[in-house]
Amino acid sequence: MDVRPRLGIIGGGRLAEGIAKTWLARTGQAPVIWSRSGPRDNRISEATWTTKWTGTLEAESVAVAIPGRALLELAGGNEQAKQFTGNVFNAAASLSRASLQHVFPQATIVFIAPFLIDGANSIPMVALRPANLSDAEWTKANAALDDFGDCDVVEDEAAFAQLYLLGAAWPAVILAAVRAAADAGVQRLENEIAIDLGRRIFFRGINSLLNAETSGEIATPGGITERGLKSLGEVTVLFHTVFQQMQARAEELRA
Ligand SMILES: NC(=O)c1ccc[n+]([C@@H]2O[C@H](COP(=O)([O-])OP(=O)(O)OC[C@H]3O[C@@H](n4cnc5c(N)ncnc54)[C@H](OP(=O)(O)O)[C@@H]3O)[C@@H](O)[C@H]2O)c1
Question: 255 alpha carbon to ligand 1 midpoint, in Å?
Answer without folding.
Answer: 15
